[in-house]
Structures are given as structure tokens and as C-alpha cells.
Amino acid sequence: MAFDADDDHRPDTSDSNSVEALWFLTDLLLDTQLLMADAGRPDLVERALDLSRRLATDGPQVDQTFVLDFHAVTSAAAEFCQSDPGEMNRPGSAIGELYWNLSWSVVFLSVLREKNPP
Question: What does residue 24 show for φ and ψ, rounded to 5 degrees?
């Protein structure tokens, strides 16, 4: 499961919402890469991997270029998910989980930007 607030390995980030948002966003991007690989979309895996690398390098400070690249990747992945609405809405579907991850990624990127303005 991608976004599990009960993970035992989750670090204590009660002192910083931006660190928690960074952690969740990184976790979601990594899980998204696995789901896209399983779905046969290596092009999207590479683009999401690039975003993960940039987050690891730049930390919570994301610039406008990152935001635009993030939007391009999540939009392409969402279009892929929406190409099969039946599969996307089926409980337990990997495509549904991917779409869910994309939605939460947008939320956590927004939190990250709010806590760390450029």
C-alpha cells in the first residue's frame, strides 16, 4: 500500500510538516514508479524517477520547473489511468491505486510548496 499512515518505519516528523510532506511525496513517487512499471509504462517510470532524484537532491525546496515537470508526469499517468475507467474503479486495482497515489501526490506537493515557498 502506498500511503499508509500506520507504517512502523515512518520517522517522527511531528516538528515539521514540510519534512512529513516531503517524506510522503517521496514515498508516493516511489510507489507510483513501481505501479507504472507493472502497468508497462517505462517512459513514465523514468520521468517519475527523475522527480524522485530531484526531491532527494533539493529537499523540500521545489522550484517552478519541478512543479511543471511534476504536473506533466502526473497528467500523463492520470490520462493512462483514465483510459480504462472500469479497471480504475475496480476495488483492489493497481490502476486505481496508481490514480489514488497521483491524487495524494498533488496534495503533498501543495503542502510542500505552502511550507517552503520559493
Answer: -65, -40
Residue corresponding to grid cell 513501481: 34
AA identity, residue 72: A
d(CA 109, CA 115): 10
Instruction: Show the cell assigned to 73.
Output: 508526469
Q: Which of 52, 67, 51, 48 is nearest to 114 (CA)?
A: 67
Q: How many angstroms separate the CA atoms of 11 and 24, rounded? A: 11
Question: Which residues have a Cβ under 8 Å from the Cβ of 85 and sit 6 or more positions away?
Answer: none
63-79: pLDDT as tens digits: 899 999 999 999 999 99
| Sequence-ordered alpha helix ranges (H) in 40-93 | 42-58, 64-82, 85-89
Residue type, 46: E
**What is the C-alpha to C-alpha distance for residues 110 and 7, in angstroms, rounded to an integer?**
22
Length of the chain: 118
pLDDT at 92 exceeding the cut of 80:
yes
